[in-house]
Amino acid sequence: MPKLPEIARNPLAFIAARWTPNPVTVRRATLAALVMSVVIVITGGAVRLTASGLGCPTWPTCSGDSLLGTREMGIHHAIEISNRMLTYVLCAAVGWAIVAIRAMRPHRTGLYRLAWAQFWVVVGNAVWGGLTVLTKLNPYVVSLHFLLSAALITVAVLTWQRVAEGDASPRPLVGKPVRQLGQLLAAAAAVLIVVGTLVTGAGPHPGDSSGEFTMQRIEVDWRTIAQLHADFAWVVVGLTAALWFVLRAVDAPTGPQRRSAELFAVLMGQGVIGYVQYFTHLPAALVDLHMFGACLVWIATLRVLLSFRERPLAEPGETPGAVSAAVPEPVGVGGRKPVDAARVPLADQGGDPLPVRR
Predict the structure, then answer these.
(1) What are the start-end ranges of the E strands in the chain?
(2) Residue 179 to residue 190: CA distance in whole angstroms
(3) DSSP helix/strand/coil, 144
(4) What is residue 201's predicted lDDT score, i.e. its pLDDT?
(5) What pLDDT band is residue 335 in, cutting at 50, 70 and 90?
(6) Lowest mean pLDDT: which of 230-244, 273-287, 307-321?
(7) Do residues 81 and 69 make contact, with C-beta atoms less than 8 angstroms apart?
(8) How many other C-beta atoms lie within 10 A of the C-beta of residue 200?
(9) Long-range contacts of range 179-182, CB-CB < 8 Å, 24 or more positions apart?
């Protein structure tokens, strides 16, 4: 039997042996995956809020044996199938991040596993999205679909952050009581998001307009659960303000102070949207904007936690480039030596990527 070419046997290794991306390219690839993780949440919300959740009444096909359905199925079908197609765009963004991370020098196993974790969460959530269709938009299944999207955003944020860090053990930048306050804040934000999914599950947007199915809703007055959601929101706001004051009092580094201020600003904007949508009886456009805000709140919360520590390039006493010394470096185009990701600074003190001279 003829031996398969190298590119067919291990395409990622084939690419890595011939191309080494610079650190900015890798960070942009992981940022693209994070952005698409948020975009898919917004478009998924639009599917439900435009009553297009059953625009394709089955899964994995759209209707019968047809994968894409037909134009005659109407606007709801077009909205639903467009969201399904965006899943492939998300997979492409995550795939690009995987390829870029695999091609880095030196190879970073932990970061590579995080990138692949994104892919498997995408696959799992896509299957769960199919289950929401098969259960005719059961509100509990739909709620978990959103929470899986939050899990994807979590892994995407971690991957994006880790690209800008080293692989040494994390070193705390603030004391244990401050870290515990941040963990309490993150737990409250997680509960806030979970309760928010219950609000939408009890609210006036079941996700289907065909009238062919009896749409199940969470059997509680949406105003009551919305009040509970608002209460948790104020808890999160209070904890964020307390954290900012504590960080100022202990003269913490600029990073944690800045991240807590950013979270407070995002919470204020999200609060305005939340109260406006409540008093205007949940218009679809504002609900979708509120879902976008929920993604930003969670991202900002994660960035607060991640700002509490740093990860140097190497452990104390080690040489940053020692890990890659035994790894033969591939030759770039034109015989130029590729950029070593362990030796190039990724961002300035403000966290913005630095340009890399080619």
Answers:
(1) 171-172, 309-310
(2) 16
(3) helix
(4) 87
(5) very low
(6) 307-321
(7) yes
(8) 27
(9) 179/308, 181/239, 181/242, 181/243, 181/246, 182/243, 182/304, 182/305, 182/308
Which residues make beta-bridge pairs with 66? Answer: 63
C-alpha dihedral, 36 to 39 to 45 to 46, nearest 10°: -130
Amino acid at position 24, single letter: V
Distance CA 160, CA 283 (A): 34
Taking the whole predicted model, whether its pTM rises above 0.90 is answered as no
- Tell me which residue has tokens 């709620």: 143
Question: CA 270 → CA 65, 167, 192, 237, distances in Å?
Answer: 42, 35, 12, 11
Report the first-to-last Cα separation within the chain, whole angstroms: 44
Q: Is 236 helix (H, G, I), strand (E, B) or coil?
A: helix
CA angle 288, 289, 292 (to 5 degrees): 90
**Token pair recorded at residue 207:** 């996700």
- The residue behind tokens 């999914």 is 197
